[in-house]
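User: Could you go from structure to sequence for me? I need the amino acid at each position, not a summary. Structure tokens:
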């Protein structure tokens, strides 16, 4: 089945199409997804611009009703959307259904936020004047999303953009266009005016590039890799557009000697390996106090041995395949680099064969690593984690912060004092105590520091910063 792009309220056939392949079974083609031409992206931009004035002036109730309708349909179809997501991306059915549910809840949350767009009224320092500070839509927003959360990331960019009165053009990752297309279909049928929401699928170098460089796009919100994010920043900010970037992580999880060992293993296993380790918040550096090092590595290795790596949609699978051949090659390359750097591969790291042909990789754990090794500096983005032994808490904190990234960090400890100290001193946008570094709520801000993020936070009420612009009005009292 073919899937067209949504431009100006119409489904428009692309210049060519690309098959969407199931990473659990490469013989399974989910469908063909059209690639928009540069001219079609221009049409989408023109349609969004034409719709922007009227959409910005809709009532908050009109926008709330439309977003609520989208959220209701996503939630009603969460099992079906979860199945599609698991089939195209390779996360397990439970993980994928959870992600679809999250997308529905995000639309519901921002339906409510339509009714709570904040403003302020202040007195002037001069007599007889009132000051009113209001938030207005930014205009037309270009959204560029990655393959690892095919429905949640599009949802957490689209929903606030639309809620605050902006028009949207989204370019999803070509690898996983299915979930974004299904979401676009739901939005289209909900009854948004033509041009308010547009979907243009295709290559980043063509479709994404056009969104980033076209002066009619007022803002770009991007999630993906560091090099792509940095090149987008240079181009989009260079022409004066508003930019928000969420990029990689090299997230530390500190395990202290006083940790509850069951909690430590559960938290590390989930954070490092679930969703096949393909999360920007994954715990890729396990920083462990020497006193519990052997016990922790032994228990984590045992837990890893029990994992079932198989077809994402097969009952009993706990870890699905890697998303595609090129990501699998990247993971295997880093497993090789780690061994050459002198790290000890404790378990996993080999390609696995299953009933169907897919990109299966045994989750890999390195031990005896140093924080200056490449496997601990660069984002691998697969089911690969390293143990870095440290003497004490002070060294653990210093190693945790010794990275160019700053997305999320975690600590497992029973010491209230050390947990509080870590929370205050971890140089990351998010911090977890006795919880995995990955796995966050939908109603609170998400984002990092240092090389992980740029611009204001995504999600929760903080999304208002990016998707609105402030106006200050001075009014002479009559
Ligand atoms: P990219 O950063 O290349 O892609 C993210 C999005 O940007 C995709 O939609 C992509 O399009 C688009 N894009 C690519 N080039 C351009 C461009 N020149 N202008 C505008 N948009 C562009 O990440 P990948 O998906 O290729 O993954 C590569 C690596 O990135 C992974 O191995 C992982 O290390 C990291 N990554 C990190 C994520 C995170 O959340 N931290 C998420 C995903 C990946 P398309 O791919 O369709 O061509």
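Assistant: Here is the amino acid at each position, in order:
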């Amino acid at each position: 089945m073919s899937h067209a792009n949504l431009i100006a309220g119409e489904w428009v056939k692309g210049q060519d199409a690309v098959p969407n392949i199931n990473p659990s079974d490469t013989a399974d083609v989910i469908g063909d997804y059209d690639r928009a031409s540069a001219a079609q992206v221009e049409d989408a931009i023109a349609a969004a611009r034409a719709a922007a004035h009227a959409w910005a002036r809709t009532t908050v109730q009109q926008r709330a009703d439309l977003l609520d309708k989208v959220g209701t349909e996503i939630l009603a179809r969460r099992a079906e959307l979860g199945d599609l997501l698991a089939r195209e991306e390779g996360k397990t059915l439970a993980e994928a259904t959870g992600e679809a549910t999250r997308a529905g809840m995000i639309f519901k949350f921002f339906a409510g936020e339509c009714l709570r767009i904040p403003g302020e009224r202040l007195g002037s320092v001069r007599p007889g004047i009132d000051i009113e500070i209001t938030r207005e839509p930014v205009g037309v927003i270009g959204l560029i999303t990655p393959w690892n959360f095919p429905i949640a990331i599009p949802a957490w960019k689209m929903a606030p953009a639309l809620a605050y009165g902006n028009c949207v053009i989204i370019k999803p990752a070509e690898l996983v266009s299915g979930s974004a297309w299904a979401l676009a279909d739901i939005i289209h049928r909900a009854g948004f005016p033509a041009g308010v929401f547009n979907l243009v699928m295709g290559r980043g170098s063509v479709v994404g590039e056009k969104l980033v460089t076209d002066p009619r796009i007022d803002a770009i919100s991007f999630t993906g890799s560091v090099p792509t994010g940095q090149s987008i920043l240079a181009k989009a900010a260079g022409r004066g557009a508003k930019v928000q970037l969420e990029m990689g992580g090299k997230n530390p999880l500190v395990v202290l000697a006083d940790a509850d060992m069951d909690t430590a293993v559960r938290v590390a296993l989930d954070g490092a390996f679930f969703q096949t380790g393909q999360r920007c918040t994954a715990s890729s550096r396990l920083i462990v106090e020497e006193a519990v090092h052997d016990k922790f590595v032994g228990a984590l290795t045992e837990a890893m041995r029990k994992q079932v790596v198989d077809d994402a949609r097969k009952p009993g699978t706990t870890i699905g395949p890697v998303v595609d051949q090129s990501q699998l090659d990247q993971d295997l390359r880093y497993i090789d680099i780690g061994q050459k750097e002198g790290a000890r591969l404790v378990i996993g790291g080999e390609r696995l064969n299953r009933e169907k042909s897919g990109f299966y990789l045994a989750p890999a754990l390195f031990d005896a690593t140093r924080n200056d090794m490449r496997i601990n500096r660069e984002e691998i983005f697969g089911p690969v984690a390293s143990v870095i032994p440290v003497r004490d808490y002070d060294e653990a904190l210093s190693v945790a912060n010794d990275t160019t990234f700053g997305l999320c960090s975690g600590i497992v400890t029973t010491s209230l004092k050390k947990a509080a100290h870590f929370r205050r001193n971890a140089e990351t946008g998010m911090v977890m105590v006795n919880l995995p570094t990955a796995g966050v709520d939908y109603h609170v801000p998400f984002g990092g520091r240092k090389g992980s993020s740029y611009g204001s936070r995504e999600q929760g009420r903080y999304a208002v910063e990016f998707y609105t612009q402030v106006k200050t009005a001075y009014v002479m009292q009559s």
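One structural detail worth keeping in mind: The mean pLDDT is 98.
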